[in-house]
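hey so u asked for the seq, here:
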Amino acid sequence: MNRTDSKIDGFLRKTKKWREEFQKLRMVCLECELTEELKWGKPCYTYQKSNIVLIHGFKEYCALLFMKGSLLKDAKGILVQQTENVQAARQIRFTNVREIVEMEPVLKAYIKEAIEVEKAGLEVDYKKTSEFVIPEEFQNRLDESPALKTAFAALTPGRQRGYILYFSAAKQSKTREARVEKCVQQIFE
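ran it, structure tokens below
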């Protein structure tokens, strides 16, 4: 079975920033006998159709993202939680190829551990939607409008979480209010 995906070749050809780093991370993942696919527009590496790691780049760094990174032991203390709201995924960040080369044995060990987590059927214990803090600006709107409160309660927990996280991500109250206003009609629909 071919474990490479020609779409990744196309992705790498188009990539300007981090190309060399992505190519090295790709080799590390393939050497761990993972299968590559292009998912969410990024190289994703799977074990028996389960997502294990994703390669992605940002302005300041590129990263190897472990889908269930929160379940890894992280013996070297190198896994990074992207934001406080990310529950499962963890990254290992790089700014150049040399760092990847130096860490290759450690990366392979972490990937092997991630495969073992998948084989064991371990699942991340996600926070319930009710455990997220609803921003004051949105809570005020819910308190003012019973119809909005009912419509929001009728959404799936995932959609509720999505809105709460979207509203909460804004630093300024004015921006949170604007986001709430923009989404009220969508919540009703």
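The beta strands are 35-39, 42-47, 50-57, 62-66, 90-94. The helical segments are 6-14, 19-31, 97-119, 136-144, 146-154, 157-169, 173-188.
lmk if thats what u needed
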